[in-house]
């Protein structure tokens, strides 16, 4: 029998109380612990610790805002520059065949975090959907978050 090992998901699965406050605001000053890949003057890029696929990144303005209408022009430009940089890192390290990129605005639209605007970039491969999510509500992520964070940071040098 094969085993799926993803110990970082236990708090999510068990519904344990999460740390208080905004994950993006907390991550501003704590690069390694919160899986921050890089920051610019206005944007932060970090791994999603509950990923849909390996390499699932979150790209967020550093300023705590809720909606895209609140973005300043310089933040929009920086956000998309960082998105391009993050996509290039994912391409270099994981070589995905495609990407899902977008915002989930409000809980109704699928946002897990509604108080701080963020964009998802999800690497995709042909055949990355299989029976596991359908039959057992399980997604296989084949690399540890720490290992992937190190690989992405090293590729950015």
Structure description:
- The protein has about 160 residues and is an alpha+beta fold.
- The chain has a single domain (about 20-155), classed as HIT family, subunit A (2-Layer Sandwich), CATH 3.30.428.
- Helix content is about 30%, strand content about 15%.
- It is built from five helices and five strands.
- It has helices spanning about 10-15, 25, 75-95, 130-135, 145-155, and strands spanning about 35-40, 45, 55-60, 100-105, 120-125.
- The chain has a five-stranded antiparallel β-sheet.
- Helix 3 crosses helix 5.
- The protein is globular.
- The chain starts with 9 loop residues before the first helix and ends with a helix.
Features:
157 residues, alpha+beta, HIT family, subunit A
Broad structural category? alpha+beta
CATH homology superfamily name: HIT-like
Write down the Rg.
Answer: 16 Å
Q: What is the strand content?
A: 15-25%
Based on the coordinates given, report the CATH architecture: 2-Layer Sandwich
Question: Order of strands across the widest beta sheet?
Answer: 1-2-3-5-4
The number of distinct β-strands equals: 5
Helix percent reads 25-40%
